[in-house]
Structures are given as C-alpha cells and as structure tokens.
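Page 42, continued from yesterday. The earlier attempt failed because a stray header line got pasted into the input along with the sequence. Redoing it now with the clean sequence only.
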Amino acid sequence: MRAPSSTTILETAGLKAAYGHAQVLFGVDIALKAGEVVALMGRNGAGKSTTLKAIMGLVPPNGGNVTFEGRDVTGWQSYRIARLGLGYVPEERRIFTDLTVYENLEVGRKAAAGAGKEPWSPERLFAIFPNLAEMKGRRASAMSGGEQQMLTIARTLMGNPHAVLLDEPSEGLAPVIVEQMADAVLAMKAEGIAVLLSEQNLYFASAVSDRAYVIEKGTIRYEGTTQDLEANDEIREAYLSV
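This time it went through. Structure tokens are written below.
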C-alpha cells in the first residue's frame, strides 16, 4: 500500500456555506494529501455533507476558498471540478435505475490521466465488489440500498479520479457490505487516490483513514490521527456520542 504523499491535493481555507439565510459552515479548514484517506466526522447536522457539497460546487460557498491540485476552484460548477479529477459519491447515490449495473459503470467511464496508469475497468471493480459481478446484467432499480451504494462508488472510480469525496459510505448498511466499502476505500488508497469521507462510524473510519477532523455546528473542533481520536474520550463524548 502506498504511503500518503507530502503534496496537498485538496484544501479548504475558511470555507463558509449557507442554505438561504441559514449559515451552516463557519470557516472550515481541511487539507487532504495525495494518496491519503481523511475522515470528516460528526453527528447528523454537524456540517459534514455540506462541506463535501461546498467543495464539489453543489452548494455555492459564501466565504473562504477551495483549492484542488493547485487551482482555486471556489464557486466553480460541479462538472468543471469533476473534469479536473475530483470524484463525488453522494449519500443519496443517484444511480440510473433504468440501466443495468454494467451500463451504469460505462456511463461513468473516463480515460485515465497520466502515462502508465492502469484505468479502472468493470473487471477490476468486480474484483473489489463481487456482488456487482453477480448482477452486472441486473437493472439498478432491482438492487438493495447497499448494492446501489457499491455501484455508486464503482461508477465514480470508472472516471479515474485523482481524489474522491465519499459521503456517509457505511450508513445503514449490513456489516458484510460495510466490509466491502472498507475494501474499496483501501483499494483507492493503494492506487494513490486521495479520499475525504464524511462518517459517523468511528470503527469504520479507524479501519480506513490516516487522519480525522471532527466538525460540530459547522466548525472544526478536532484535527489529528484517527488513532489519537479513538483514544480521546473527551472529544468523542463531546462531539461524536449520540
């Protein structure tokens, strides 16, 4: 498995975002290095998903900035950010239900950037998600929620991204599916893909991430290794316990 690079691929500085008059983010600072997995943790409503959406341009920031691979992409439209190599896996999945598993993957296909880099293919992804291999001809509408989540991640990887925003990958899924989600994140890391995932499950985050941020009421309250977070009872009780 590759070690994280020293190069910062994605960074937010003082990022703010709102829904109408309701301010949600109040100056979020996050850094993600190439090949690193970072967990953004917090309770429901803390601002995790909004942070990812603001980075991806789905919620226009109203303060601060977002830098991806050295370019200021603040306020860019989502498709422009995606074309630079930032993938996004939404919590609500948004797959094409009338298409088969294989067709959904083909919709996401994009040439790999960089000489000598092996592109993601359905066959490589089926090795990570064996459930998808067994149902590649099935319409996505006939899949369970966990299977649809696997398909969404696989479709995103077909775009050969340099970094991926992964929103609540383990929420509401059966343990066996969660294990496959963890395998997928570790496979991305092994390929040098940086991953920023929003998560409530500390066990899942500990299994895949190098570092963690804890967010509460739109403000970062903790930054450090996931291991240190596990050992920090005060932070966990204050910001992660239900």
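Notes: DSSP finds ten helices and ten strands in the chain.
Reminder to self: strip header lines before submitting.
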